[in-house]
């Protein structure tokens, strides 16, 4: 049997644009219906997605639900609860020279938007932006990552079954397919992934004067102050770092601390890793695997950057890299020259807070900065004297689960943001309206 040829990107976009022009995606009812259907898809096929995520990343079911499926459901529920309020036109005071008149802003959908997702949270990072795009009344082309093929195939099959197929399309494929999509004119492009491709996306978008959101990565530092409870620090640090085998955009990338605290932190980290994954993490049900051989080889080459405190074991056949802590790491060691994006945690020593702040400010602006400290002054100084996409005190990763906080980077870690009402801002045009009576 011959399969019909896949629809060309130009035809997909033309079809969605025609739908958008009919006005079908604009009523709030259409939007909430799509969100509810997406929610149903996630509840009815959570297990399908969890299996696919296990196949792609060795993700445990617990992690799949917590960080992808239930995470997206929460985003949907939060949006459904507040959408009417977020969309309400906002009155603006009118200056006296206009006499009797009213003015307000209202959110207009942009049109047809493109969402390009990466492989590390391949469901969440495709679907959470799609939630915002639909809530804002747009038609959407969703491009999942080819590097997570099982999840990508599941989403390509399920999304058209549940969502309005004339307004939502999934295009699967890698570089050639994405390149072809990027030739088309979109009204917004939302890209999550690395900065090199971010530049390609932005260049393509510039040809059509299309605005972009770039959710990129980078090295997110963790400052550990002296005199903190290191058992708590190590437990929270290890949990945030080794989730998804370190393949998290906001994972703690490296630790900055003074030499004495570094020495005390080492055994605490060993205990924390063992508490999470047992004495042999290779046999743990909850510890993930590296996405592919290319990343496995890249990561194993970084293991020589310091003294191994715990971990260091690898197995290429299963793409296993043990949760690894490296001590005595020099600031210019290979592991410090690129975003690690894997289960390796280097500890770099500095004299104290001043040097830590300089260390951070000497490098690209990170997606997240974390600190463990009891000192309010230290927290205030870090907040005021550094720049990062987000800032977390006492608990890595958690800020991005707060639905009312914007999630996004700054500088090399990206531009624009989303989640909750910030997704409405991202996927809408805020239109200024003035109304002056004729008589
Ligand atoms: P990836 O390789 O899956 O690429 C992301 C997307 O870009 C894919 O859909 C892919 O098809 C597309 N792509 C790849 N090459 C392309 C090209 N030449 N032209 C057009 N499209 C292309 O994922 P990745 O980039 O390896 O993801 C990891 C990076 O993403 C890390 O830097 C990480 O920090 C970052 N990240 C950021 C966030 C965030 O929310 N800020 C979340 C996750 C990952």
UniProtKB/TrEMBL annotation:
Residues covered by the Aldehyde dehydrogenase domain: 11-433
Keywords annotated in UniProt: Oxidoreductase
A Pfam family per the record: Aldedh
Cross-referenced PROSITE patterns: ALDEHYDE_DEHYDR_CYS, ALDEHYDE_DEHYDR_GLU
Domain of life per record: Bacteria
InterPro entries membership: Ald_DH/histidinol_DH, Ald_DH_C, Ald_DH_CS_CYS, Ald_DH_CS_GLU, Ald_DH_N, Aldehyde_DH_dom, Aldehyde_DH_NAD(P)
SUPFAM superfamilies: ALDH-like (SSF53720)
Active site: 215
Family designation: Belongs to the aldehyde dehydrogenase family.
UniProt protein name: Aldehyde dehydrogenase
